[in-house]
Amino acid sequence: MEETISLKELMQTLRKRMTLIVLITVAAMVLSGAVSFFVLTPIYQSSTQLLVNQSKNDQPVYNPSEIQTNLQLINTYNVIITTPRILDKVITDLNLEMTVNQLKDKISVQSAKDSQVVNITVQDPDPNQAAAIANKVAEVFEGDIVDLMNVDNVNILTKAEVGAKASPVKPQPLLNILIAAVVGLMLGVGLAFLLDYFDNTVKTAEDIEKLLELPMLGAVANIEDQKIQRKVNSSRGARVRSEQVG
């Protein structure tokens, strides 16, 4: 005989384990908040933009092949920006105490599709250093690309600046707490059903019917010993009074 679980039984399981579910959810939220606020290091982000112009000897005529060439050139620039040739000079000029690979991990270079604008984004625990690195990378690249590729078609469009109220881009405590709440709730519900699944104790008449697959014909009420004792004492007292009257 297959066992079926009704929606009512599911709700009863959740109601019975509600304290456990709430405790796990709250514990996950508190742990996530503590880690986000007191353990993880705030990371700030700063960006600068480069504009890749067409070469001066390019003819102002629409040419699909030239457009494709410009896009491939931008992809080449994106790779050159994070090479040791550029980053070594940045480290030297800013007196940074880090390796080229460490600096490279802080930098991301992107360009929008079919766009001549290259975005250089730097993330660092110090907002001022993040802006300084972004500006220095753009400056060094603008100067070195002339010798590297014999072109002079790169200009700094916007420089990185530190706002008056710079805020970190990560961690995001509220988002982390929200995710922890969802994960904690899922763990709590899963654990509640797991505990209920392995709980083989018989608690109600319905449990007996399911276990034996037989109908219940009757049940013996559970009478507390104190109630029995009070009834016995009351009966004895009544008998004694009856004998005295007789």
Automatic annotation (TrEMBL):
Residues 148-194 form the Tyrosine-protein kinase G-rich domain. The chain crosses the membrane at residues 20-44, 174-195. Residues 3-94 form the Polysaccharide chain length determinant N-terminal domain. GO terms for molecular function: protein tyrosine kinase activity. It comes from the Bacteria. It is found in: Cell membrane. The keyword Cell membrane applies. It is a multi-pass membrane protein. This is Capsular biosynthesis protein. It comes from Lederbergia galactosidilytica.
